[in-house]
């Protein structure tokens, strides 16, 4: 565990890295993924080879904004998180799991709201607030985050999703590392060798 980081109720791969001043709760983190300094993650599943920038916030919890008279937890949560509760039971689900695919990049200071699913290969721009699902290999940015473009054409995305290179043995990845800088050559060589 990194200096001054707190990890509770989580399963972090031995090949993953959590940097300084992070807080992770109820989080699963796959092989070779990392979270940079100051990350906060709650109730999330993070795939393999994900790059999560500094000060990213994932799964911060939510408050009811419809139907309830007040958004204050004293009226719907028995957990007493605010120091006060009138409720003798939990009446509102304050946390929905976030699912982040494989090979996802999330830029500095981005916020990923509860219940969001981010597809394999997607990129989230620094400072974005992601309140809706993100398709595989999509680039999103802004507040709220909006679709910008796809990283590759539809055919290339389909081929990458079929190959699922992140599930290959690390020895395979190590052997083919130089191909990762040219997506077309990578796919051709992988398909030639029967890997796809």
UniProtKB/TrEMBL annotation:
Matches recorded under CDD domains: LbH_XAT
Alphabetized GO MF terms: acyltransferase activity
EC number per UniProt: 2.3.1.-
Name of one Pfam family that matches: Hexapep
Top-level enzyme category: transferase
Record keywords: Acyltransferase, Repeat, Transferase
Similarity field: Belongs to the transferase hexapeptide repeat family.
Name of the protein: Streptogramin A acetyltransferase
Species: Marinobacter litoralis
Lineage of producing organism: Bacteria, Pseudomonadati, Pseudomonadota, Gammaproteobacteria, Pseudomonadales
Gene coding for it: vatD
């Amino acid at each position: 565990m990194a200096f001054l980081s707190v990890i509770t109720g989580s399963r972090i791969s031995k090949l993953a890295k959590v940097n300084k001043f992070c807080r992770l709760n109820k989080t699963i983190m796959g092989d070779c993924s990392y979270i940079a300094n100051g990350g906060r993650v709650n109730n999330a599943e993070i795939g393999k080879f994900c790059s999560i920038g500094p000060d990213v916030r994932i799964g911060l919890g939510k408050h009811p904004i419809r139907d309830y008279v007040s958004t204050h937890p004293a009226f719907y949560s028995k957990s007493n998180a605010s120091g006060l509760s009138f409720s003798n039971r939990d009446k509102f689900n304050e946390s929905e799991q976030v699912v982040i695919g494989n090979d996802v990049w999330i830029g500095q200071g981005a916020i990923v709201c509860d219940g969001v699913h981010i597809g394999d290969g997607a990129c989230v721009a620094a400072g974005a607030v992601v309140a809706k699902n993100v398709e595989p290999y999509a680039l999103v940015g802004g507040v709220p985050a909006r679709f910008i473009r796809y990283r590759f054409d539809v055919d290339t995305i389909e081929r990458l999703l079929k190959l699922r290179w992140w599930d290959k043995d690390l020895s395979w990845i190590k052997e083919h590392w130089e191909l990762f800088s040219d997506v077309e050559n990578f796919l051709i060589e992988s398909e030639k060798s029967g890997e796809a």
